[in-house]
Structures are given as C-alpha cells and as structure tokens.
Amino acid sequence: MTFAKCPWWQIDRLHKDYESGDPDWELLRESWLAVYASWGIVFNSFSELEQLYIDYMKTELGHQRVWAVGPVLSLDKDVVGYANRGGSSSVPFHELMAWLDSGKEKSVLYVCFGSVVTLTVKQMREVASSLELSRVPFVWCVRNPSNNEQVTDDYNTILKGLEERVEKGRGFVIKGWAPQLAILRHKAVGAFLTNCGWNSALEGLMTGVLLLTWPMFADQYTNAELVIDQLGLGIRVAEGERKLPEPSELARILDESMKEENIPERVKAREIKEAAVKALKGGSSDKYLDDLVKNLNELSLAANKV
C-alpha cells in the first residue's frame, strides 16, 4: 500500500499511535485494503470540502468509482422531526427549544463529546469550571457513564454544583441523548465544542457554527487537522483522551470565540455551510449521487445477463 503524495499529517497520528501487528492496527489495515479493493467507494463528504483527497483516490490509487454524496443530512428545517430520530433525553424537547428561543443570535455554545466518549471525573470538573468562568451561555450534553454508580454520583454532584453557581438561565444541561442537529441549526447557537467525530463535524459544518475541537481518539485527530489546519474553520482547544484543559485558559478561548463574529474561522465556516447546501441542491453531491445510481443500475443489468 503506497502513500505517494499523501500529506504526512494524515498518517502521522496513526504512525505514532499504532504498531504493526497489534490488533487495532491490523483491523485498520485490513479495512483500508478492503476499501481499496472494493468495486466503488461512497463518501459522506462533498467535493468542496475534500476535493484533494477525492482526486487522490482517483489519480494516485487508480480508483475511478468514487462518489462524494454528502453531507448525508436533511435540509428540512422541521426541527421537531430531528427530536424524534434519536434516543431518550433528560429534558423535554419543547423546553430546550424555548430556552434557545430566549437567547441572542449566535450567543450560545453547544458542548458535546459524542456518544462514545465518557469524560473522566477530573475532565468533567475542568469543563464545568471552564463553562462557569467563561460566562458564556451554553447547552452541555453529557453522556451518562455506564454501570458505574460512583462515577454517576460524581457526575451528578459536578453538574448540580455548576447549575447552582451559574446565574439562572445561562446554562442548560442535558443528560444522555440530545437532538444535536436541531440544536446546531438554532439561530441562538454560535459555536460547538466537539470531539470532532465525523458525523458531528459534518453537522457543525452544515450549520455554519464555529467548531472548537477536542479530538480524543481514532479519526477525530485527522478530522480536527482537516477542519483547523487545512480548511481554517475551527479552533483547537485541547487534544487527547486524557487531556486536562486548564479551566481559565479554556474559559478564555470559549469567551473570545463567542464574542468575535467576523474572525476568519467564522467567515470560513459560513462559506463552507453555503458550499455544502449548494452541493446537495443540484451541485457536486447531487451529481455524484445520480452517477452512483447510474452505475449501480448498470451493474445490476450486467449481473442479470450472466
């Protein structure tokens, strides 16, 4: 397998974190080889976001059946529909929307580290302290720790203390699942503190909010590199699964990122949002999807003749 002309930043993290022969590396390696050997490759992305890498698949790896059909997200503005597509939440959807409706445009920070990562108790304390010090209105979605009563108790104590200390109405905590796309699409939300999993990154890009990244494992590191260093539409706030951010410094970043409307990262985020919508409305992703369907039909006809 060759990486000719592939930017080193893409594989540098994997190069450092994995060793040949260990099970995790072999799983990744076999997955990559299976992708390269496949009949075709469908990406949940779009040309305007990753043209360099789509071209790389075609020119350097010789794989001509490559389709970027994303973002695979609905353009429907009916936020109620988003609320019914996920898991259970600790707060009623209408209460969340009413709270957001009361906020100023682009004033609220949304915090969520995905459905896999569980913050350590120390990380919870640091994030809570950062939110308290920042004075920024926030919605914090907290994944419930599984099967650990002590950690659950510690979580509840931290969250209760945060809610008691911040002024009434400034913070909104959701335990468990949150209607993320509905939150990000609300006009009151201006930034997203995320671990930069690909689905979350795409939802942030699709809604034009500023991405504040804290990647913790797997592809989150390279996703954050793409968002920040290659595309220039996000700000790195931390990195690492066991990282402990310094509360006053994180609070400063949160506060400054919410105050400035026309910083380069926000301008770029708005541009990417427009590009994503155009890609789905008759643009590159729409055309790729038509071509994918055409190729699948031809494949089906050829198989029926055998």
UniProtKB/TrEMBL annotation:
SUPFAM superfamilies this protein is in?
A: UDP-Glycosyltransferase/glycogen phosphorylase (SSF53756)
Keyword check for Glycosyltransferase: yes
Q: Which UniProt keywords apply?
A: Glycosyltransferase, Transferase
Bilayer-crossing regions: none
State a single Gene Ontology molecular function: UDP-glucosyltransferase activity
Give the top-rank taxon of the lineage listed in the UniProt record for this protein.
Eukaryota
InterPro entries from the entry? UDP_glucos_trans (IPR002213)
Q: Provide the family line.
A: Belongs to the UDP-glycosyltransferase family.
Name assigned to this protein: Uncharacterized protein
